[in-house]
Input
Amino acid sequence: MAYADPPYVGQAQKHYGKAEVNHRLLIAHLCDDFPDGWALSCSSPSLRLLLPLCPEDVRIAAWVKPFAIFKPNVNPAYAWEPVIFRGGRQRERQEPTIRDWCPANVTLTRGVPGAKPTGFCLWLFDLMGLRADDEFVDLFLGSGAVSRAWDRLKDRLPLELAM
Output
């Protein structure tokens, strides 16, 4: 299974000094190379552009930010981020139901905007039904937080959880 957290549509040059990601090719890559499941983080304004590129069986989940950075003259605040996901392991009836939303405060790290907090990472792994012996590919390493959380989880090491 794979997770993609690319620079959000229209933000690559501004935040990273890089060319825009071709989301049409990215979504095709996710569908072709990760048939067991994938997730893609994006911004709420980009949903209208990205959903037509996705197969009809995708779902939308939400990372809700109880504490978010509020920008002057932006109202309402952008205090959630969509996660488009497809597939994943089906849960057994006796397993707890996972919500399609996750409350987790933003991680304030220098140098990498949009770093995901541990609470988000654990929710993402549950959302996709990941188990320690699964192969998980983090396509956009960014701060490395998601990959580090996966490595610690699959090695059964304790995680610092800040929700």
User: Anything to note?
Assistant: The chain has a mean pLDDT of 86. The two ends are 24 Å apart (CA to CA).
